[in-house]
From TrEMBL:
Assigned keywords, A-Z: Hydrolase, Signal
Signal peptide start-end: 1-23
Pfam families, per database record: Lipase_GDSL_2
Organism: Lysobacter stagni
Domain SGNH hydrolase-type esterase per the UniProt entry, residue ranges: 206-402
CDD domains per the UniProt record, alphabetical: XynE_like
The protein, known as: SGNH/GDSL hydrolase family protein
Cited InterPro entries: GDSL_Rv0518-like (IPR053140), SGNH_hydro (IPR013830), SGNH_hydro_sf (IPR036514)
GO molecular function, one term: hydrolase activity
Taxonomic superkingdom: Bacteria
């Protein structure tokens, strides 16, 4: 053989041997389809009650969650983020939710963790269950049942569930009809539900305070604005995650960590994250002079804007679109409660300055003007009566629905820009 031919043949053989085997691109992926942002339990020196029992002991807690996108398989994430002791779960089950405390017969599955039916979650940690073959439709509801065999303080929770949870004696995790002797309006230890979905599935996160968490929305009805947004996006195969925490603030901790502190956990670390909507700041402005923050000053517009810029920079560093939402009206907020003093003219001036920057600053990728949608044209600092829940701070169901309808889906996802630039 000609030496040149031999060299060429040898090079070809090495190229074939060294060439990587290109596997077919995966057709499915795991995406979060529901979340509840974890919070640390607070002490009795704060104005609001935790609405939690002292502990669970030889009891089952059954909690319901409505997913956004669906899939044929499911996983559940448990969180002991704020616990100082190991969290012992004696048994955990997932099923399609029935009425009240019931589950759909024949849909129950035991959750396992690395093949084990029980799990101990270390302090500060989370545990993801093994995958379960349980087809869940888009916008369907699942129930997660946890059994606590030993005294367990609910150190990690979510304060405002807008969903009733049921507490009953003994291990009832597999019971179709659960006997309960107590209910909760909080969530405990369950922080996410994931489904196996097409690889093209995207995720949108709504991070905010009680107006995102859905305070004053009808209980057990899924009428928060992120719920209504999930209905609009289900056909686009986009999951919507609610990272609202009632009482949350941009700059300070108390009812949950401040926004920059939890931005990675609740937003940027979510698989498939495409966009985030930020609606937060009214508590930074309004808590001053109320029992919620009697010694705290009013956050300045400059301080809030600086924090928003940090969130924008961090989102852009990860290739995530970030949408700014204007702060909704709050004149008369909580005036008939012990929290009176939440609104005054100085606070309104800060809100107006913040909203002007959100609208006109040009730093968010898009803006949704929730203020313009929900305010009373005859009295702009106040909610439109049809959208007011009655406390003059939170929308009612109609207001939440109007907020979700006001969101431009193409601008949220960047689809309009992509379509206009394509050949």
């Amino acid at each position: 053989m000609n030496p040149l031919h031999r060299i060429a043949l040898t090079a070809l053989l090495f190229a074939v041997i060294a060439a990587p085997l290109h596997a077919a691109a995966p057709t499915t992926t795991w995406v979060p389809t529901w979340t509840a942002s974890p919070q640390a339990r607070w002490d009795g020196d704060f104005a609001l009650p935790t609405n939690l029992p002292f502990h669970f002991w030889d009891q089952t807690v059954r909690q319901t969650a409505r997913v956004s996108v669906g899939g044929p398989r499911i996983r559940v994430l448990l969180s002991n983020q704020y616990g100082t002791q190991p969290l012992r779960i004696g048994a955990a089950h997932v099923a399609l939710a029935g009425k009240a405390a019931d589950i759909v017969a024949g849909s129950d599955h035991a959750l396992t963790f690395a093949g084990n039916a029980s799990v101990t979650v270390p302090p500060g940690a989370s545990m993801l269950s093994d995958a379960i073959d349980l087809p869940v439709p888009a916008l369907g509801e699942v129930s997660i049942s946890l059994y606590f065999p030993q005294p367990t303080a609910p150190a990690t929770f979510h304060w405002d569930a807008r969903q009733t949870a049921y507490v009953g004696p003994g291990n009832q995790t597999a019971n179709v009809r659960m006997k309960h002797d107590a209910t909760l309006t909080t969530r405990v230890f369950v922080s996410a539900v994931q489904v196996e979905a097409p690889a093209s599935t995207r995720t949108v996160v709504a991070i905010g305070d009680s107006i995102t968490d859905g305070n004053m929305a009808t209980m057990d009805a899924n009428t928060r604005w992120p719920d209504a947004l999930a209905q609009r996006l289900a056909s686009r195969n986009v999951a919507v995650l609610n990272a609202g925490i009632s009482g949350a603030r941009v700059l300070r901790d108390r009812m949950g960590e401040n926004a920059p502190a939890r931005f990675d956990r609740d937003v940027l670390s979510q698989p498939g994250i495409a966009a985030v909507i930020v609606l937060m700041g009214i508590n930074d402005i309004g808590w001053h002079g109320t029992p919620l923050g009697p010694e705290e000053g009013i956050a300045s517009a400059d301080a809030l804007i600086a924090a928003y810029r940090q969130l924008i920079q961090r989102a852009h560093a990860r290739g995530v679109r970030i949408v700014g939402a204007t702060l909704t009206p709050f004149e008369g907020a909580l005036q008939d409660t012990p929290m009176r003093g939440y609104f005054n003219a100085d606070k309104e001036r800060v809100r107006q300055a913040v909203n002007a920057w959100i609208r006109d600053g040009g730093e968010f990728d898009a803006v949704v003007d929730f203020d313009a949608i929900t305010r009373d044209p005859a009295r702009p600092p106040r909610f439109l009566p049809d959208y007011d829940s009655g406390d003059h701070l939170h929308p009612g169901d109609a207001g939440y629905r109007a907020m979700a309808q006001a969101i431009d889906l193409d601008a949220l996802l960047g689809d309009a820009a992509a379509s206009s630039s394509s050949p």
